Amino acid sequence: MNSTYKTLSSIFTRPHAGLTHRSSDLQQWRGIRVKIFNNNLERGLTFMQRIMQSSGIERMIKNEQIYHIKNSEKRILAQKNLQRRLKSQDLARKLKSILVKKVRYGYLLILFCV
């Protein structure tokens, strides 16, 4: 429970005044307020979790790296990201060429039918 509190409090701390921040950073500074009715803490926690999921704060908590990554691991991750990007670009290029061929072929069929 203490570690969860520390993680949440570190995210909701006020941003430095001299630096420029995105609006989402300022929204995090404001925090989330949940009213608890009739001492129903479970319902309040589920409501807070729903708000955190919809605003993307939960994703940021999961993505925040608490542990240190070795340089070798960073290189491996960078290489995998590069391969993923190149594969995506290659597939996009292939799809574009297929679509262009279909458009040209369809255009030629229209010319021969007329």
What's this entry about, in short?
The protein has 114 residues and is an all-alpha fold. It is built from 5 helices and no strands.
Structural class: mainly alpha
Stretches where pLDDT is under 50 for at least 5 consecutive residues are 14-21
Q: In whole angstroms, how far apart are the ends?
A: 75 Å
Radius of gyration: 25 Å
Order of helical and strand elements: HHHHH
Strand content: under 5%
- Average predicted local confidence, pLDDT: 76
Silhouette: elongated
E-strand count: 0
Structural commentary:
With 114 residues, the chain is mainly α. The chain contains five helices and no strands. It has helices at residues 2-11, 23-30, 41-55, 57-63, 71-113.
Defining key terms:
5 helices, single chain, about 110 residues
Topology diagram in text:
Layout: H1 2-11, H2 23-30, H3 41-55, H4 57-63, H5 71-113
